[in-house]
Design goal:
Blueprint (H helix, E strand, L loop, with lengths): L3 H17 L3 H15 L9 E7 L5 H13 L4 E7 L13 H17 L2 E5 L8 E2 L9 E11 L4 E4 L10 E10 L10 E6 L2 E3 L13 E3 L7 E20 L10 E8 L6 E8 L9 E17 L4 E9 L7 H4 L25 E2 L9 E4 L5 E11 L14 E2 L5 H12 L3 H8 L4 E4 L14 H9 L18 H33 L3 E2 L1
Parallel strand pairs: 1-2, 2-3, 3-20, 20-21
Antiparallel strand pairs: 4-19, 5-18, 6-17, 7-16, 7-18, 8-9, 8-11, 10-15, 11-14, 11-15, 12-13, 12-14
Amino acid sequence: MLNRRAFVAGSAAGALTVSFGLPRGAEAAAAGSMDASFRPPPPAPRPPTWWHWMNANVPADGITRDLEAMARVGVGGVQMFDVGVGIPQGPAPVLSPLWVKLVRHAVSECDRLGLSFTLHNCPGWSSSGGPWVTPELGMQQLVWSEAGVKGGAPVDVQLPQPLVRLGHYRDALAVAIPADPADAAQGQIVRAAAGGKAIEARLITDGDAATGVGLTAGETGALTFAFDAPVTARSITVQAIPGDDIPNFEPRTFATLEVSEDGQSFRKLADLAIPFWRLRTIPPLTASFDAVKARAFRLTLPSALRIAEVRLSASARTADIGAKAGWGRVANRGGEPAGPVGALDPTQVIDVSGFMDAKGRLRWTPPPGDWTVLRFGHTATGAKNVAASDTGIGLECDKFSRAALDFHFEKYFGQVRDVMRKLGKRGLAGALVDSYETGQQNWTAGFPGEFEKRRGYAITRYMPALTGRIVGSPEITERFLWDFRRVLALLMEDHYFGRFHELCNKHGLHSY
């Protein structure tokens, strides 16, 4: 039997012979070649570096000196960001003739020095936007309004206008559903106060997104409201609008709903998830809870918000609908209440879009009975690019629209594309999407068609689920909401990141 120690020693010696058993002259040449490749290395393994142009303070000679110094110490290329963050503005605002001249100069200098040049695809470092993006081409969010109509005879009604932001709104579709008697909460709010000061109750009950009341954070800024008689409640839906003072990165938080049987002493009833994360959308806040019968309720917020509408119902609602339907990130607290849950039959959802004109006027003959008409549309989220130079701040483009990204890409790269393409022929030019700090969007023009194409069924009968209503059953509703989020993800993949990659390939650029 071979001695183990001798075997290991022999194997090691053999390995050394195989690895280094070169003729003496060849051994020296190999070492010299390795040393030469290490200092300086060929272009491919040289690392690129971020290169921030600080709020238009970028002289041409400074560009040259920067790039020559980087090339001298072995940097392989630059990734240029046009940023601001508090620096006084200089003489070369973004897309000005001087800015274009300086970018072209930088690319030419990279060509001369053998450096790569990658341009972040917009001012700032997140994500794809600028002042040239209009609200119509910006990120979109779903909004809706509700109106009750009586069936059995023709109706001619003006449906309430859903929320309009930045002057932009487009209708998506309208559906009618049998009115749920439980939604009326069997009573009327007769008293309301914000921060201890009395307000008109209609401000939070009139179905008008343009009216509402601003609340500050904490118990001292809470909204209290009382009915004319005790009502049975099993869920609440709150239409909230964020203020401009919300921090950029506030963690997910929760509003608190309390109830009082005597109007004096309150006890906690439920948490309402607020999916903050660079919040620019308008999430419906929902919560379901075990049924209570009381007259007075109190809503306490963790951050300043304007409350446009408050609805109590004796029917359950989907918890965290603001996150589950893509207005924000999932908050994950609590679940559906125990006990039977009434659900809307999807076959009873009627598409009435064809009976509504461009101004939201509905002319239709409903079947007998009471009906609720949901008018769905979309408006801008208002999300803007992050850390941009002063003249580069603007709306983020619609991430679900190839046309919106095409417009943005052409606007930003159009005047420097030719010189970048020349460098790209050597594999040394690229475009970059750095970080994503723009919050959520959950709609775009043409979304119903995209949904049906990607999931195999029409979205129309399940639209009420996006308001928090249970459609079919809790399980069916959750499956639909998963499908809805899946389509949002696919549109982001195909029409934003995928389209960005296509545009870069088209123009001879690497995409990062």
